[in-house]
Specification:
Elements lengths: L28 E13 L6 E12 L5 E8 L6 E5 L4 E3 L2 E8 L3 E12 L2
Antiparallel strand pairs: 1-2, 2-7, 3-6, 4-7, 5-6
């Protein structure tokens, strides 16, 4: 029988809605998040910002791990211009969910564009 051990913050959630609980952190799985490019263009109230990111996940465990990366959708009109893995929209964020093989690494690259700067 599964046992819940530990503590997590739980936001107020409506009955029947999905609920997410962080159940732990792994010391042998590391993620590095980098901005690789950033540019602004446009003028006259039509300014846009485009940023590119790379997330590298290293799994030092002897078993595969499932990793989820999220990018909050903080601006109305924010969109993904390119990505190396398909995303879904989850709880107001772009989300990428992928496996990382034992003793290896995996990379996610994506570019966002949004209004303003």
């Amino acid at each position: 029988m599964p046992v819940f051990a530990g503590q997590s913050l739980v936001s107020d959630t409506a009955v029947g809605s999905p609920l997410e609980i962080e159940i732990g952190r792994a010391v042998d799985v590391h993620a590095e998040y980098r901005v690789t490019d950033s540019e602004k263009y446009g003028s006259g109230g039509k300014e846009r910002t485009r940023k590119s990111f790379v997330v590298t996940v290293a799994n030092h465990k002897p078993v595969p791990v499932r990793f989820e990366a999220r990018q909050p959708m903080v601006d109305r009109g924010m969109e993904i211009i390119s990505e190396s893995r398909a995303h879904i929209v989850k709880s107001g964020s772009f989300a990428w969910d992928f496996d990382v093989a034992p003793d290896s690494s995996a990379t996610l690259a994506y570019t966002l564009e949004y209004p303003g700067g």
